[in-house]
Task: structure prediction
Amino acid sequence: MNRILIGTDGSPGARAAVEEGLDLARRLGAAVTLVAVRRAIPLLGDPFYQRRLSEQLRNARAVLDEAKAEADRLGVDADYEILEGDAVDEILRAARYGEVDLIVIGSRGLGPVAGAVLGSVSRALVQYSPIPVLVVKERVGARREAPSLTR
Amino acid sequence: MFRSIVWATDGSEAADHALPLVERLGREPGATVTVVHDDEHLTGRARGHSVLADEPELAAKVRGQVAGLRDGGVEATFRLVRHTGGDPAEAIAEVARDVEADVIVVGTRGHGRITGALLGSVTQGLMHVAPCPVLAVPSTARVEPVERHAAATSA
Result:
């Protein structure tokens, strides 16, 4: 187990995944790639596009910075990537190119908005991933509100 | 990390793919492995095999794998879950709650549409009812095997 990919979006499930994934990496001596996937923005016209884009990037960075800080605190070697597109496709692509051995993901993520499509990302990853996937449930007793990539 | 590890297996080859990883995790200091074999798991969908004809053989194979894990220095116990009807995922989750599992490991066929059929459905079910994280290991996964693994599975 050399590299673990942790998908995160700042949702409570994703936070649990970050926590679990980093702990696992620390114990196994694996490096970590933190990945946030932002949705493609439909063409809205320039100023709106720019505004949405910088908002998405700001949120993604905030989420990843927090996870990266936690990794540093634990002494886990971590890098991060912000990807654009379909979460499942992008995570699988990143896993393939990054020579990842394990994907860690929250059981349901994508922030409060996407709560309706319960766990669709984790479910699809389990179905299509050629490498092991660890699906982590959010802890009971929610954490504090975090920026979401899907808002 | 994972102190209490549950490996849910139906004795199939797909399930076996998780074994190297189970062994790897089970070798961590302080870790225990509970191998759960659920025979209801196979009802009517064991790739054409009859449950009754195969079950003793499968259970024996899983017992052999448990012995292999023990030989490898893993603290492993065997749990046979027998039940008629009901949800296999629920039965596995029950054991997981009982042993206060930190993770449930399941082998899946991985990659492909058939996944939905057999282990896939149990895995998907587990993601809902499990009291802990679920580690799905597809048949395509390459985990560096531990030396005695080959001996353990061919038994």
Notes: The longest strand of chain B covers residues 32-38.
